[in-house]
Amino acid sequence: xxxxxxxxxxxxxxxxxxxxxxxxxxxxxxxxxxxxxxxxxxxxxxxxxxxxxxxxxxxxxxxxxxxxxxxxxxxxxxxxxxxxxxxxxxxxxxxxxxxxxxxxxxxxxxxxxxxxxxxxxxxxxxxxxxxxxxxxxxxxxxxxxxxxxxxxxxxxxxxxxxxxxxxxxxxxxxxxxxxxxxxxxxxxxxxxxxxxxxxxxxxxxxxxxxxxxxxxxxxxxxxxxxxxxxxxxxxxxxxxxxxxxxxxxxxxxxxxxxxxxx
Amino acid sequence: xxxxxxxxxxxxxxxxxxxxxxxxxxxxxxxxxxxxxxxxxxxxxxxxxxxxxxxxxxxxxxxxxxxxxxxxxxxxxxxxxxxxxxxxxxxxxxxxxxxxxxxxxxxxxxxxxxxxxxxxxxxxxxxxxxxxxxxxxxxxxxxxxxxxxxxxxxxxxxxxxxxxxxxxxxxxxxxxxxxxxxxxxxxxxxxxxxxxxxxxxxxxxxxxxxxxxxxxxxxxxxxxxxxxxxxxxxxxxxxxxxxxxxxxxxxxxxxxxxxxxxxxxxxxxxxxxxxxxxxxxxxxxxxxxxxxxxxxxxxxxxxxxxxxxxxxxxxxxxx
Lengths: 262, 319
Prior knowledge:
The structure holds 2 protein chains of 2 kinds.
Chain A: H1 4-12, H2 14-33, H3 35-48, H4 51-56, H5 65-74, H6 77-91, H7 95-100, H8 103-107, H9 113-146, H10 152-180, H11 183-206, H12 218-224, H13 227-230, H14 234-257
Helix pairs in contact in A: 1-9, 2-6, 2-9, 6-9, 6-10, 6-11, 9-10, 9-14, 10-11, 10-12, 10-14
Chain B: E1 16-27, E2 30-41, E3 45-49, H1 56-63, E4 71-76, H2 85-89, E5 92-95, H3 107-117, H4 123-132, H5 146-158, E6 164-168, H6 176-191, E7 195-200, H7 203-209, E8 212-217, E9 220-226, H8 227-232, E10 235-242, H9 249-252, E11 257-263, E12 266-272, H10 276-282, E13 287-292, H11 297-306, H12 311-317
Parallel strand pairs in B: 3-7, 3-8, 5-6, 6-7
Antiparallel strand pairs in B: 1-2, 1-4, 8-9, 10-12, 10-13, 11-12
């Protein structure tokens, strides 16, 4: 039997969870299903954009199946959607209930501070994992169905990267919330870091002498390895998972040590 | 009073439910509570009184481990609020002063969550309390009035029959009828051996339910008194009508008598403590009538512990 707090967390967040899941699913399905109709237009679109812009947006080519998925699902809008979902849902684990006062009665139950934090992060993390996995799961069905010529193993690798990316930023968001108890801080700091990380990856790939910046960016470990063409890169994925695990653990430790609701 | 423990200051010191030693909390430079030394015996009802901002909620939140002391420590049922939090909170019923419920559940679902989180509570105990407080469990807590929310808060605090009830301003939002029902619940809990520590700035409710009162002011403990002795020390207004005019000097030298005003045969004064000296002195004259206002804890409170600052809050409170 799952802890009561985990079930309660899911139940309280159910509207947001279903909303995000529906949005991410619709986004994936619609974009991918347009692949065949899009083929003609892609050529025009690719010619219309300067190469620098394409590089910045992480679009290698929009004509190949891998390039198309990269451009639509995995480069900008897809990660943006799931990261927004991750950051706002993670802000609900500690920061929001601490600010609105609802956390006191949850914490007044027979559960240690650390156990409370772990249960909250486990509830949100599992839900986020499910949502971040939706594009991958749908692509496993849609790609063979519409006959896109790309190895499913590569799609799986990129999709796993999306989940790992979500874990890393959810960990950061959790740490900020656990340390500050402020929802605005979670959104601003984690959102700012996500934008900075995206820029670092994009600019690091474009400017000579700035390549090293990419190594600081989780986006590089997610998509910089070009999984849609080259498949699995376990070390890079592990780096994202470790970032998420380390920030989450740090969050639990900080939360266990501070005053609540001051 | 029913449910009142007979034991006084002796013989029960080994059975301490709640103990604070030099308990201190500063928020930066701002003082929450300082140097609090307090003992609440098992089965006792202790009122925790003071104006807003005196440090009542800070103390309670220290006991619940939401805050960590800057100095000193507290033990509840002999356990450490931080180290033994999980075990301890199974035996604590807590009502926050700022009552906010997590989520948008119906009262029914919310209480099921609390029941499950506390390792299972017989549902009959929940419905019993809800009936007692006349609470409709099928409504969403978010849409409830303040009074009904407070009832849900009380139900969740009492439902698992905890050894210690820590209640922060428990009667706020309740109508007078429900306040009486709540006080009856407190007496029943005390009768069943549960310890109750409840904060308030309303003296009347403490007077009715508590064995002892701890009074805090400006972050420090001002006094701990038995409710009865608080009553005995009460200041009362006395008015005596004599047959003939009297001399005020005869009365204003009496112990405990002050504010003597004589207009012809009518004497008005305030008496602090025993009224006997005044009666003896008055008996030397022909007394037509005598009026003595009931000892008012509110006035006692003011005269002994406030004098000036903070008085405004206390005098508003019970009105």
